[in-house]
Amino acid sequence: MSAANIAQPEGFIALPGSAQPHYDDATVMFRFKDLLLLAMFDISTLRPLPKEMLLTTFKASVDDAIARSELTTTPVSLLNTLQCFAGKLNEQPHGGCVSITVAFINTQRVWGYCAGDVRMGYVLGGALNWHSPVHTAANVFAPFTDELKFSAGRHILTRCLKLHRTFEPEYFQFDLRDDSQIVCATDGFWCDPQWGNTQSLVSEPSQHPIDDCTCLWFNPNALLAKTVPSLAHSELQFFTQYDHLQICT
Q1: The pLDDT of residue 115 is above 60
Q2: For 72-101, how does the pLDDT look when each residue is reduced to its tens digit (9 = 90+)?
Q3: In sequence order, what are the residues at sequence separation of 6 or more whose Cβ sits closer than 8 angstroms to the Cβ of residue 54?
Q4: Taken in order 184, 130, 46, 88, is the CA torsion positive or negative?
Q5: Phi, psi of 11 (to 5 degrees)
Q6: What is the mean pLDDT of residues 211-238?
Q7: Which of 160, 171, 180, 212 is a plausible cystine mate for 122, CB 3.0–4.6 Å?
Q8: Which of 116, 102, 113, 137 has its CA nearest to residue 42?
């Protein structure tokens, strides 16, 4: 792959789908000392919930866990924080559901939880490598493959964060190389034949995405080395007030 076709070092795509009334994906990132916490949400079109409520509740849940010294890098701690987040949402009278992926990221590893079809992986050698599971009716008994992108069952979620229902996200983790870039995307990116490839990280396709299209990518080594966040977008909430805080194991 030529240098001209290598993905930009970091970037963020957030576009409303041509078939959608408005953009309803959401992305949040917290920066700690030598650690990031990333969350990406894909709100259901058929069963939507208020986006501002979702984002405000997630930040409040993370803030509360930090204030109580209950947020650590262990999977159990992160799961407890997510269950508290789901519980706070359940206090609202609203219904609705959302695909969710939340993960810790350091320079060597990614670990977290997901429910639905927001995917995480990395870019390496000019290729997208997806590593978090996908929960759809198209792949109930096996990992998701490219051939299933065109299956009708892909649009039926077998796991999600659904208000007033039991929330059971799945744990995942994968290792990183120093030269790899983290990538996190909703299905409006990774499942769109025009968008779901590394060329879209170089220059955006001329064809508008069908569904809400979100993709975030960056090199954790480079991002954590910067004193000022370089990723800025109106649809990306990047909180740095805890950048001095060492999250314990």
Answers
A1: yes
A2: 999 999 999 999 999 999 998 878 999 999
A3: 26, 41, 43, 89, 98
A4: negative
A5: 180, 170
A6: 91
A7: 180
A8: 116
